[in-house]
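Dear H.,

Thanks for agreeing to be a second pair of eyes. The structure we're designing against is below in token form, covering all 163 positions.
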């Protein structure tokens, strides 16, 4: 499973980060998983640079057929020099281990290998990564697990629990 997830991360990274400040894709997080997957298919087809939420959409779509992988959105709010920054990754759990998929301007704030025994250890690694980038991590939210049915229209709960 580690190899498959690393391969998916390599693909996400190959799309490159969108530094323009303008989104190339319409993302409506309040819609069901069907919207997430249709947006992910469009991102894959167009192969334009993406931002973190689009990386989560692609990661969720590319792992949807992996029934043995649980996927959770994890949202971060940090600050630096009075500015607030928001970020999201896709936490993944398989075989009792945690890791993450995603994309960021900073390498330390996206992919984490499937190696953490506890979710709290994964979040702790992100906290250390934020600190090493001089960011103050203010809040972390975790959502409900994403469905594996790509045609599901059930609303996704992106932020359910503050950790």
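And this is the sequence the design step returned. I haven't edited it by hand at all.
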């Amino acid at each position: 499973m580690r190899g498959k997830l690393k391969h998916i991360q390599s693909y996400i990274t190959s799309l490159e980060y969108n530094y323009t400040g303008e989104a190339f894709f319409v993302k409506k997080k309040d819609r069901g998983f069907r919207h997430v997957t249709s947006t992910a298919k469009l991102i894959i087809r167009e192969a334009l640079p993406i931002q973190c939420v689009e990386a989560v959409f692609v990661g969720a779509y590319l792992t949807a057929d992996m029934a043995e992988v649980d996927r959770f959105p994890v949202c971060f709010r940090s600050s630096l020099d009075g500015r607030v920054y928001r970020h999201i990754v896709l936490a993944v759990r398989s075989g009792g281990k945690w890791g993450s998929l995603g994309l960021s301007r900073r390498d330390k704030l996206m992919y984490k290998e499937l190696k953490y025994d506890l979710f709290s250890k994964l979040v702790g690694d992100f906290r250390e990564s934020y600190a090493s980038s001089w960011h103050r991590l203010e809040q972390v939210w975790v959502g409900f697990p994403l469905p594996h049915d790509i045609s599901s229209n059930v609303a996704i709960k992106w932020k359910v629990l503050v950790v």
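Two observations from my side: Helices lie at 2-14, 33-46, 52-62, 119-132. Strands lie at 70-80, 83-94, 97-101, 112-116, 136-142, 161-162.

Warmly,
E.
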